[in-house]
Amino acid sequence: MNISERILGCLRGPAGSLPRMLASGLMAGMLLAWTVPVMAQDEEDAPAAEESSAPAEASSEPAQPDLSRWQCRNCPLVDGWRGSVLFGVGYVSDDFFEFGNYRGLDDQGVYGALGVDLTYRGEDARYLDIFGERLGLDSRTLSIEGGRQGSYKLSLGWDQITQLRADDTRTPFLGAGTSSQTLPAGWVLAGTTDAMTELESSLQGVKLDRDREILKLGVAFGGKSPWRYRADLERSTRDGNALRGASFIFRAAELAAPIDYRTTRFDAGIGYVKDRWQLEAAYNLSLFENDNRSLQWENPFTGIFGAQLGQLAEPPDNQFHQFMLTGSWNQSRYLSLAGQVAVGRMEQDDRFVQATVNPNLVNPGLPRASFDGEVDTRIVNLRATSNLTRKLRARVQFRYDERDDNSSRDPFTQVITDTFVTGEVVNEPYSFDRTSVEGSLDYRVLSFLNLSASAQRKEMDRALQEVEETTTDIFTLQARTNLFEKLNLRAEYKHENRDNDLDPALLGPGVNPDLRRFHFAEKDRDAFRVSADYALLENLFAGVFVEVADEDFKDVNIGMSDARAESYGLDLSASFSRHFSAHAFVAFENLEADILGADNIDGATWKGSQDDDFTTVGFGFNFHELPGKWVRGSLDLSYAAADGNLEIVKRGIASPDFPQLKTRRFTLEAALERALRENLNLRLGYLVGKLTEDDFFRDNVQPGTVPTLLSLGEQTPDGTVHVVSAMLRYQFR
Amino acid sequence: MHIWQELTQTLGKGLILATLAAFFTLQPVAYAQDEEAAKGDDYMPEYSRRGADECMRCHGDEDSAHLNAVFEGPHGVMADERTPFGGNQCEACHGPGGDHAGRIGFGQERPPMPAFGPNSPWSEERENQVCQGCHTEQKHGFWEGGTHQRQEVGCADCHESHVRRDPVTVVSSQANVCLGCHVEQRAEVHRAYAHPIRHGEMGCSSCHEPHGAPNEAMLASPTVNQNCYGCHAEKRGPFLWEHEPVTEDCTLCHTAHGSNNPAMLTRRAPLLCQQCHSRLGHAGIGRSGNDLPSGDPSAFLLSGSCTNCHSQVHGSNHPSGSILNR
């Protein structure tokens, strides 16, 4: 089906459905509304249309001034350096690995603190901009950009992001974090962990962490010519490890799997920019490389059929090429077009690892040496907008996203967990295309009242799955008003309906025939949101919001049956002067979902529920440019709490309770800056972080706790850290 | 029908009725107001006589010192003819200031500048057009019809021009700007498992193109998955054995703004997996408190649950990896 057929298909829809008729009516009405006023705009409006056709031009532009008299003699023009350099030391009170996640403040002791925020400007528009934060820590950023403003620019960036997951994890494997992990000499194999007599004595610490380092290089040319050129090269390196499960039949071990990834991205574009239209042709490349082809580990359990060694495939090298055309055209206030069309290809042809590394099995041959994976992507995103009158605006959006998987398809004999050989399975390249058409009308009823209505139809066609087509209709109605000068009120209602063409026969052998996968299942979803902002005083504002959403999956006996979300909150902000402002907020959220299941298809039925409650509180103030010595200061406090409740009711009887999942995080950050000399300030900083978690999935699960799982024994964090810093800020002015 | 669904539908119906009532009853008033509104945007006095020098007579004092930071930023570069100070100076953005800078009678209120000032008569839309007159890069070309434009967000609501460095263009301070309005997302980024937005390592624009990209959720890349693969390229494949929801949409299992579940998953395994997997054998069995360490500890529930064995949930390139455990 080609794209035009998809659009028509979307607009048509099956007859007899009121929402769909409404949607078709709204879209047809919009098309009509679009064409009629443009063609038959009354004469009174016509001049206004012409005046407004060039957005940046005034309707009755006054005569241009004689700029030769505009000398700007009193302007404090800048040549040379401006900005500041911040340097000093900090102290971290305790070792707290998880607190250092993304911060780099995980080790107790002194650290160097460095920041830079400088700009050089020359008379001829040449400039150099240097910006760096947290340069003394493992999570840091630095960017340098220079060039001649309005002509060209060159940029260089360097980011380092540290992810710290756990440092209390332990493993008996030698070579943890590498692609080959072996058991220590004298290891005693056993069927369960409690019989592994050498386990406790063999455990050694292994940290779960990784580091991402990104190097960026960019160049852009522009200027008086309408042509624009840009090119950006980015090299991202990830090193470290990640937790990964590795199994033999129903026995598993958690491994610290190696992460040695490199991603190269290259984006280049040539654009042409005119007053009312612009077009850019761009090429995007993403090249992923992994230093490890596979991860091998020795089986710590007694292997069946001599399964002593296992092998996991690591993510293969892959690449993605895409050509994209983006553009926009503001023909007049009556017609604006924007869009992007992209054609891409994902490729992956890494050499396969062996079907098994178990020497006791006959290694089945492979139908090919590598995958020859090739997926073509075709994307169209288009939008047309029209200000039909000063009060009425229409918008039509069309989106098309196709994944055409042309990868090889062959039968592969499966060796289950390097233990025994079964039959052949043919790989299934998944293709899909999804189309969305949306029409919306915005109507300014009064200067203080705006109404918006939209209707959207989404269709998705898939291959090789039990549902080939899903059709979703979404209707949205929104009202915005500032009826009273001090009050802004918004209300929005959204209804969503999804149908499908399920063929249960395609669910496959051994699958519960009542299963309705949640992303295919027919459903209704209703959401209502209202928010209000009120000016309590001239400089004191309050905001409230409430949002409820309910999702009902129709006739689902197995799978997700319903989900709910509620959230509400309050905001306060105050600006007491240009120098002093404060804010506070609190938000509550509740997310619930019910999943229905049945043991072994016709066994006990059960209902599982997850219910998460969140509370988020924040408070802060800051002042700056105060007269006197204390020139700048800030305080930010945040508190986030989450409680998760899981429940299983089997055969109508509640099973033994799961402990509550809990997260509590409190962070307070304060800074105060005092002028020492004309160009020198002292900045004192304080940060306290308190983090506690209860998670029964991990807590009390030591390496040998679960008979069939040799875990890493990761426990939830619990601790408090204080960080103080003293820095000097040298200012260039 | 669940009570919340009844509630949301009732509220929705109420909103529809109120909307229709407002539409039909307020029409006459609407047209009169429309004329008034148009006058504000048409306000176009003469330019001042001496440009910025005239402005600086009043706004060059200590109280206005913060405004002078415009000369440290990109807008204050005289040698770049595209910038305000390469042309009509203050009045390039604030509109012609002849009235504002002109003589006024005793007791008479000084007329406001047309744009970007206290009581300025130009509408936000008109002010936005001032910015768009110069900022013609491709991303700004998407503004018309984008979600922010439809919601009447002004350029100045997010951007500061009288500064050397606009906070919304700095990764570590950008989220403070965006989350001032996007209050639900502000709560979400504080959840236990979230992208490092609250740490200042990622900005909202790492994923979103706020100037109105024509794709879903104004993403920086044309589709959701392309957006995610930008940083998580190892998940892209294609793999020999695909996990079909992964190819469709990462957000089927992950919540990008933050979650109470590890890896920002929408739910905890095994329930997460059992939304789609129910079959003979262990996959469909409801796990309970009996499977905790205090009872009969089970690898089907604890630690990584299903992923203890099926760890290749994003796809596997192993010839024997059809059930994503190799």
Any descriptors?
heterodimer; A: 733 residues; mainly beta; 26-stranded antiparallel barrel; three-stranded mixed sheet; 35 strands; B: 326 residues; mainly alpha
Plain-language structure description:
The complex is a heterodimer of chains A (733) and B (326). Chain A is mostly beta strands. Chain A has helices at 3-12, 18-39, 46-52, 199-202, and strands spanning 80-92, 109-121, 126-133, 140-148, 152-166, 170-171, 180-181, 204-205, 208-221, 227-248, 251-273, 277-290, 294-298, 309-313, 318-332, 335-348, 373-387, 392-405, 411-416, 420-426, 432-446, 449-462, 469-481, 487-500, 523-537, 540-553, 559-577, 580-598, 605-624, 630-650, 653-654, 661-677, 680-694, 709-710, 718-732. Chain A has a 26-stranded antiparallel beta barrel. In chain A, a hairpin with a 5-residue loop joins strand 23 and strand 24 (487-500). The termini of chain A are far apart. Mean pLDDT of chain A is 91; it is low at 13-23 and 32-59. Chain B has 326 residues and is an all-alpha fold. The radius of gyration of chain B is 28 Å and the shape is elongated.
Structure summarized in a few sentences:
With 733 residues, chain A is mainly beta. Helix content of chain A is 6%, strand content 59%. Chain A starts with a helix and ends with a strand.
Shape of chain A: globular
- C-alpha termini separation of chain A: 64 Å
Task: Specify the overall morphology of chain B.
Answer: elongated
Q: Enumerate how many helices of chain A there are, as a single number.
A: 4
Biggest sheet character of chain B: none
The averaged pLDDT of chain A comes out at 91
Strand tally of chain B is 0
Blueprint of the fold:
The complex is a heterodimer of chains A (733) and B (326).
Chain A: H1 3-12, H2 18-39, H3 46-52, E1 80-92, E2 109-121, E3 126-133, E4 140-148, E5 152-166, E6 170-171, E7 180-181, H4 199-202, E8 204-205, E9 208-221, E10 227-248, E11 251-273, E12 277-290, E13 294-298, E14 309-313, E15 318-332, E16 335-348, E17 373-387, E18 392-405, E19 411-416, E20 420-426, E21 432-446, E22 449-462, E23 469-481, E24 487-500, E25 523-537, E26 540-553, E27 559-577, E28 580-598, E29 605-624, E30 630-650, E31 653-654, E32 661-677, E33 680-694, E34 709-710, E35 718-732
Chain B: H1 3-25, H2 27-42, H3 52-59, H4 90-94, H5 98-101, H6 124-134, H7 147-150, H8 155-158, H9 171-178, H10 183-188, H11 224-229, H12 244-248, H13 271-274
